[in-house]
Queue: 2 jobs
Job 1
Amino acid sequence: MLTVTTVNVNGLRAAARKGYVEWLAAADADVVCLQEVRAERDQLAAAVREPDRWHAVYAPSSVKGRAGVALLTRREPERVRTGFGVAEFTDAGRYLEVDLPGVTVASLYLPSGDVGTERQEEKERFMAAFLPYLRGLRARAAADGREVLVCGDWNIAHREADLKNWRANRRNSGFLPEERAWLDQVLDPADGGYTDVVRALHPEETGPYSWWSYRGRAFDNDSGWRIDYAMATPGLADRAVKAYVERAASHDARWSDHAPVTVVFSA
């Protein structure tokens, strides 16, 4: 079995004070993918930076206090790669991958955007550069007899079922037609060739949402977005047996505005 959890921690230092440490200690996962770490290694307490029984690798952003991704693995990685070969994003704290026996696992924090701003332009540049990398990663892995799993905060809701208020968000970043079409390409068997594992296991379900704004009563009303994905190559996706979101029991029990998303694969 292989169990992988992905979660945007919304600042690892803050999450550690609110319950992340206790959550990780109880986790059954073999791999944990973190996004929006927002800290350098030396800014983290030792128990957070190098948790017991985990191998931890980090890719912080060169802009302090922003982005940052990490991977925690039970087994020591065979190889670690930061970035995906595009200079603008190499030190942006947006992509990190490791090779484990038979599988490459990546933690992704795709930029969020805002229509009509430089942030949206950055997001579009990232998407344009990242899709060719995903294609190549899949091809290289297949040639080596490996599978691929890219987990993280993709900052795009793919379908109407992936966010509560989809009608009001049709012109907003995160649910733009061109962003959703880009995910279509990622998931097209003749193009990117990846599978959205959670949706494949829950094809008719609304959500399950993985992010809720801290504003208003979004969490209490389950007015959320499903933007945290586990995208797998077909051979690995076919082995998926369970996928679920660890939604907190109450608003005050949350340690991030995102919830952990876990997928379980058979051997």
Job 2
Amino acid sequence: MAARAAPASDPARSRGRRLPEPPAPTRSEFQRDRDRIIHSTAFRRLVYKTQVFLNHEGDLFRTRLTHSLEVAQLGRSIARSLGLDEDLVEAIALAHDLGHTPFGHAGQDVLDDCMHEHGGFEHNLQSLRVVDHLEQRYPDFDGLNLCFETREGILKHCSRRHAVVIEAIEPGGIATRFIHGGQPSLEAQLCNLADEVAYNAHDVDDGVRSGLIELEQLLEVDLVREHWQSARDAHPGLAGKRLLFETIRRMLSAQVYDIIDATSAALAEARPADADAVRHAAKPLLCFSPEMRARSTALKRFLFANLYRHPQVQSTRARAEQVLRDLFAAYTADAAQMPADFADRPDRERACADYIAGMTDRFAIREHQRLTGRSLF
């Protein structure tokens, strides 16, 4: 393992928790955060939340949980090579999708529309709400009371209007960079990139497995074609799913090595003295090379056009949107249809959004059928 890099986050120098707690005798502060996330209710629910394909469409497709685990694995591997804090990377990776709705991005778009007059809905902000407020596991506080550095990484994106609200409550805190510019920690930057690498790779796998895209189509993409050819050259006669798996493995390795090399070069040039110096950098220091960035973007565009916009995926999306619109309408009309801890809240629309966002796909489908008498799936 590489020695701790100077600009890495140091749990002994954390900016701390919103509510101070005594240190744990055997774990660092970032280890405690990771453990709290793993034991949370929201984390367990990820196993039944959609990535691209609904949970009931096949047992081997990725879910939000398996995606989060893959991001954590990639993140830890890269962090170890760069001398970053692996526990912080893992904590951010495991928590980054806690606020995702059922039915993937379709659910986020519906809730944002339903909440248009009530502050909107952003899944990254919802992930922060989960760890700051919605989890109820501890006697002394709501949420998980995570460290600043973990919360900073969870808030990957944030609109300016929401950042202003957070900044008023927490001056100079996790939303400052969205108002005044700046970057998050290297560990947070790493999770952003590992997230992209992971979903590009597993969506290739799931897309081919589903039959919605063909390997021959994917060979139009430089990143796929190069590693498909190198896999065939190294293993003549290799075909079928083993060829696909070997192609994806080589793609992942190439991107990981590129991130390590490009980031090492960027850090050598910028020479940030510590983690706070990273936050004042003009641009992210954890990065792809320009060539790999272009290749990754081309793959992302291919998947958007050929998988995410595939008619079969779109058909599922339309039904998912209807389920959530109907649920939101039913709960706002009759809050008593929700559990008491949501029904009794004065902010009814936000309570409805919180309740729906926490649902798994299959629970949302069951609730919709209970409330409307209709089955859309």
